[in-house]
Amino acid sequence: MLEHGDVVAPRSSRDEGPLHAYERYSTKDPVEALALSAAILSTNQLVVSNQDQRFEATCRAVRVHSAWLLYMSYGTDVVVDRLGTSRGDYLAVVLPIDGHVQLRHQGSEIDLVAGETAGVTSSRDAMHARWSDQASVLTLRIDSQAVEHALGNLLLEPPPADLRFRSGPVTGPARLSLAGTAELLAASYDGKDPDSPLPALVTRRLEEQILFTVLLGLDHNYRARLLGERVRPGRRSVREAIDLVSAEDQATWTIPELARAAGVTVRALELGFRKELGKTPREFIREQRLIRARDDLQRANPGDGTTVTEVACRWGFWHAGRFATSYSERFGVRPATTLRSGPAVR
Question: For labeling, which of 115, 127, 290, 313 is most exposed (least CB within 10 Å)?
Answer without folding.
Answer: 115
